[in-house]
Amino acid sequence: MDILVVGSVAFDTVETPFGHGHEVLGGSATYFSTSASFFTGVRLVAVVGEDFPDEHRSFLSSRNIDLTGLQVAPGRTFRWKGRYGYDLNEAQTLETHLNVFEGFQPKLPEDFRDAEVVFLANIDPELQMEVMRQVKRPRLIACDTMNFWIGGKRDALVRTLDQVDILIINEGETRQLANEPNLVKAAKAILALGPKTLVVKRGEYGVLVFGEHSVFSIPAYPLEEVFDPTGAGDTFAGGFVGYLAATGSFTDAAIRKATVFGSVMASFTVEDFSLNRLRSVSWQEIEDRFRRFQALTAFEGLD
Ligand code: AMP
To answer: How far apart are CA 199 and CA 211, in angstroms?
Structure first.
């Protein structure tokens, strides 16, 4: 099954203790689509400005990403500027310039409306809702968001969550959204808002997946080289939803395997700036790391 994704396509300016990227290709939908495209076809709905170069467009379309829904609007492309300290788990946002996103009205091309799997990447929850209104009968809707929208558009976000199957957010956002410091209680409160599954991304500490009756957890892949965590969350979501869409199975077992694929994909993204590592990684490397992940977390039961 192909995936329909709506989200940001951006220029990011990022500082980490290890280097600096100026106006590099980024955005939630960009990382998501590139990662998911290793598993299945992706249909992208987003907006860019007139300053968006052909080179980025050709890269995305070379990856099995359908750009029919990528609008070009007068003005500048969305820009985000962030910084990470030695604790690479949380970005400090320095600047957010919505630019062409301010007037963006998602309009799905006719043949995108029958999408069976939808990912609402991190954008204004009102726009996420507008996309859900336009899709006919999706089998799975997954969604991301961030502190910017939890603080600024909580009501719209809660209405969005009512229609979503899987919410994928980070640990701080989980606590902020539920208004609850304890993660387990926070997860319960969020599941009560609608999603059947809550995936909590915990940076270098891994991922916790809360279902109605189960909890699953894996660590992050232990890496020696971490350069830039930007996009790790969206890349995780791309591997996670990509695997589910490719298999068409959304069972508990599939969700566990999807969590490992998401973590594998994210572990590559953080090894370099922007999408550089996702550009070079091969399917063979992805499978190898999946196996190492399995070895990392395998243990025997009680006698
Ligand atoms: P993450 O995967 O959580 O590291 O997300 C990083 C991406 O989110 C960056 O490439 C940014 O361009 C994008 N981003 C940052 N702030 C926003 C926002 N308010 N709305 C949409 N996208 C954003």
So the answer is: 9
Beta-carbon neighbour count of residue 248 at 10 Å? 13
Beta carbons within 8 Å of 247's beta carbon, 6+ residues apart: 254
Measured from the CB, is residue 234 less than 6 Å from ligand 1? yes
Look at residues 262, 264, 263, 271 and name the one whose alpha carbon lies nearest to residue 288. Answer: 264
Q: How far is the CA of 302 from the centre of ligand 1 (A)?
A: 44
* Helix residue ranges per DSSP H, the chain: 28-36, 54-61, 125-134, 147-152, 154-161, 171-178, 183-191, 232-247, 252-269, 276-280, 283-297
Specify if 154 maps to a domain: yes
Segment 48-65, tens digit of pLDDT: 999 999 999 999 999 999
Per the structure block, which two tokens stand in for 208?
């916790």
In a domain, 268, yes or no: yes
Sheet with 78-83: strands ordered across: 19-26, 10-16, 78-83, 92-97
- Domain with 281 in it: what CATH number? 3.40.1190.20
Q: Is the CB of 228 under 6 A from ligand 1?
A: no
pLDDT in tens, 103-148: 999 999 999 999 999 999 998 999 999 999 999 999 999 999 999 8
Residue 7 C-alpha from the chain's centroid: 9
How many domains are contained in the chain? 1
Identify whether 302 is part of a domain. no
The domain in which residue 194 lies consists of 3-297
The answer to whether residue 28 is domain-embedded is yes
Please indicate whether residue 28, judged by its CB atom, sits closer than 6 Å to ligand 1.
yes
